[in-house]
Amino acid sequence: MERSIGRIWFPALLLLLLGLMIWSTELATLAAGVGLFVMGIGRLEEGFRAFSGGALERWLKWSTSSLWKSLLVGIVSTAAVQSSTLVTLLGIAFLSAGLINTLGGVGLTLGANLGTTSGAWLIALAGLKLNMAQLSMPMLAFGVFLARREEAGWRGGGLALLGIGLVFLGIDLMKAGFSGFEGAFDLARFAVDGWAGVFLFVLIGALATVIMQSSHATLVLTLAALAAGQVNYDNALALVIGANLGSTATALFAAIGSNNAGRRIAATHLIFNLVTAGGALLMLHPLVAAVEWLAQLAGLGSDEHMLKLAIFHTLYNVFGLALTLPWALLLVRLLEHWLPDEPRPPEADGLLSERPRAHGLYVNDSALMHADTALKVLGQELQHLAQLSRQVVGAAMYLPGNLAEMSTVQLHQAVRQPVPLALREDADALYEQHIKGVYADMVDFMSRLDVSLLPEQQHALLNTTMAARDLVTAVKAARHLQTNLRKHIDSPQPVLREAYSRLREQCGLLLLELRDWANHADSDVACLLQDSDARAALFTSDFQRTLQQQLRNRELDGWQATSLLNDLNYLDRIRRYLLRGHAGLGQGVPVDEQQRLEQAVNLA
């Protein structure tokens, strides 16, 4: 029964709205205006980002090193793109990817709330007094033409023009819709006085913003209704408070798909709006009195309600900043305590089979919003996959769990000791438990990456994709090698046991090399790869020569020698693909140098 209700409520709501629009052309005009306005804001955001070539995002990322700087950036950025939602969501994405710190994210969010007041002033001063439809026509014409160009600059400019034109046309339709209500019925008759009216219209404003996902749209509706006399001034003030409260919904929805770092931005946005709304309701009469005083100071008439509403919106957000800014540093500490960063899994901690199933730790939905954040979390996830790959390869070769703490001498001794059955882990099960899930999360994340990529970003994404695939290939090669290792590690033939001990030792040396990569400068990576290739070539030559000698001496038969040669090939595949995967981690290796290194590894 509940499922049936869940399936029919949304279509029923759409049919009800359709019926209301058919019944009232004024309501249909108003709804069309809201739709065009929200669509225009979306195109404006998209166009500004494409036109700036990522300048907005880079500015946000580079200018959030201090609270005051990030506060100013939040104000100016929101005023430029006319969307506090975009700036807040970018803040969530950047913080979740580690591109900005918590202090910068808090300042960015607080500034975005103040920057959104610029829209109220633009609309109150000119938006409802000019012929917006006439202004929108050339913008729409040029916008559609330019948006079809392939060049990012022209396309971005066209989308921005198209967005502004849709916004202007939407405002004009909302004006027409509210003006048409005068001949049908007067919404002002439904005004509610006193605190009951305040709380009712706060709720209406919040719900309208949640539904339209735009506090700007709610604000424009409020100003249009106020200009048409369809809502009282006192109720309009409550609608403004509700619109600010409702704007937290988008950030909260984005936080669901983010990590704890990104959730700090959503928590800041929620705390700011709750504190501001609560304080404003407690101090509503003094705030209204302050608006009247400022209006008289500016020489406004008593009936200039639209400009008074813009003053109230600005005063409301300044009041919120005055309440929260003194506690900003304390808020940062509390957020980092309540929502700590997820700990990175240890390099070695008991048997891998006893650990929980691995999954993606860094890829999250909020990072999909921008290419820089998506590539950042993919790089972090690739490092996670590389760590797991080293651990699974080591376990597949029955190497000690504390290999990362061993010296080469200790490794030489350890691989020649019997391995207890309880410590022999199954490579197939480990692949399913720890590798496949992380790799699947990365592939799913990349398949949903729907943002424009610059050429260097496309190259970085390709490198990440190939590096992840190479790491998985290395683990699969270790699975194959374990098949024979499992059979011969306890062989009664000392020569056969020693041969597999040498293979295991060589694999352990490789893992130790990769462990030491983090302790070298980026410029040393090329030398490390060349040294690894040289050592591998010497080992392969010596192993094959020894194997031929043992075969001639009848210490091994042809079947055993063939198995060892196959396993030597699997070991070489493990080495090549692990090196390729780790070369793709982006540890500061220049793109052209990285390409040369990968080609060298392929030829080895």
Automatic annotation (TrEMBL):
Alphabetized UniProt keyword annotations: Cell membrane, Membrane, Transmembrane, Transmembrane helix
Subcellular location: Cell membrane
UniProt xrefs under Pfam families: Na_Pi_cotrans (PF02690)
Annotated transmembrane regions: 12-39, 159-178, 190-210, 239-258, 270-295, 315-335
Transmembrane helix recorded as keyword: yes
Keyword Transmembrane helix assigned: yes
Domain of life from the UniProt record: Bacteria
Topological category with respect to the lipid bilayer: Multi-pass membrane protein
Protein name per the record: Na/Pi symporter
Originating species: Halopseudomonas formosensis
